[in-house]
Amino acid sequence: MAPKTEKSHKLYYSIKEVAQMMNVNESLLRYWETEFPHLKPKTLANRVRQYTDKDIEQIKVIYNLVKVRGFKLAAARKMLNENRQGTDKRADILDSLIGIRDELKTLKKQLDGLV
């Protein structure tokens, strides 16, 4: 299942909010923090994580590599380290294609209702 791409105007998101956005478990996000050094959300004194938009974009890239493309964690980590810009660009393209697909599905439903 693809991550939800809804945008909000918050500065920080809780781990629960991010997990719901990405359709993954909170434990998976915590695990990815240990596996991917680029993913370091801000933590408060009481160990509450606060994710920024930048962190969420990083999670989308990891999600794309691991869940969508089926990379092993070591291969995804290597790809992020070696070709960061190319990986980000592919994730952006995938997000755009998912959005287009969703719009086309909506249009198809509307057209089916007219017939």
Q: Which H/E pattern describes the elements?
A: HHEEHHH
What is the global morphology? globular
Estimated share of beta-strand residues: under 5%
Distance between the termini: 30 Å
Rounded mean pLDDT score: 83
Largest sheet, order of strands side by side? Answer: 1-2
Which radius of gyration do the C-alpha atoms yield? 16 Å
**What oligomeric state best describes the polypeptide chains here?**
single chain
Number of separate strands:
2
In DSSP terms, counting alpha (H) and pi (I) runs of 4 or more, how many helices? Answer: 5
What kind of sheet is the major sheet? 2 strands, antiparallel
Helical percent range? 55-70%
Q: Structural class given helices, strands, pairing?
A: mainly alpha
The low-confidence parts are none
Your description of this structure?
The structure is a single chain. The protein is mainly α and 115 residues long. The model has no long low-confidence stretch (mean pLDDT 83).
At a glance:
By secondary structure, the protein is mostly helical. It contains five helices and two strands; from the N terminus they run H-H-E-E-H-H-H.
